[in-house]
Amino acid sequence: MGTATASADVGELIAALYETACGTDDWPQFDSTALNSRQWQELLPHLQRALCLQQRLREAQLASRCALAALDAMGAAVLVLDAGLGLRFATPAGHALHAAQLAHTAPPALVRAVRLVIASAGASGPSQCQSLRLMRKQQTPLALTVTLLAACQPPCALLIARDPAQASTSATALRQLFDLTQAEALVGKELAQGATIEEIAARGGISVNTVKTHLHHTYLKTDTRRQGELIALIHGATAHLAVLDA
Question: Which of 111, 170, 183, 201 is most buried as measured by Cβ atoms within 10 A of its Cβ?
Answer without folding.
Answer: 170
